[in-house]
Amino acid sequence: MQVKNPPHLESLLPVFESLDAERIHRKRMLAGALRIFGRFGFSEGVAGHITARDPEFPETFWVNPFGVSFNRMKVSDLIRVDEEGKIVEGKHKNLNQAAFAIHSRIHHARPDVIAAAHAHSIYGKSWSAMGKLLDPITQDSCAFYDDHAIYDDYTGVVLDASEGDRIAQALGDRKAAILKNHGNLTVGLSVEEAVWWFISMERCCQAQILVESMQRSPQLINPEVALSTRNNEVGFPFAGWFSFQPMWQDILAQYPDLTD
Ligand SMILES: [Zn+2]
What we know:
By secondary structure, this protein is of the alpha+beta class. It has helices spanning 19-40, 97-109, 122-128, 161-171, 191-212, 223-234, 237-254, and strands spanning 49-53, 61-63, 79-81, 87-89, 115-119, 148-151, 176-179, 183-188.
């Protein structure tokens, strides 16, 4: 993505005086993001994970522990996992092997990626069964125009790092991938951004499913306009970060204990 953040808004981005302060921020955003996933109803049993790279030990990442409800997630529940899948920090003992197999290889392949999000949300997984990219049918869907991929090799629950590598390869330098017959995966330069892309993509899948249920073909936004809308208005990293902010304000007001 070549587009820079708008200079007049850059002052809104947090500045950290230490790696510790940055870590605390990332963990707060991660716990809040998981609560937001819970509020959207993105949980499906124990499936779904969001990761955030540690600022001091960037080969490790923070993730939600296996089998803990999104709706109850607190900062103190998060676990830190190393490149071998060992839990090196946190009170919980269980790591979702699929979370490790997918996210560790994405973080490895994409040094720019701070966070990655994946869940079996209903519209994302429904659309994934089509094996098709999203079309530029709305302003919001332009964020994903020519910036998402399809991973079309479903072979069962992802437990193997080599499949994580293939997913990372399909993702390339894009912001999102549709894992066919499975669900969506999004990444970002911040937790805030990755999570906003996931939510927005879910709703874009919902919109396209609705549109395709009508008996007429949708009118597509032309490629030049879709690209410019993505690059300059709705689809660059700051736009993702900024779009997350109202949800963060709401979730923190509703569940102030999430930062415990
Ligand atoms: Zn999954």
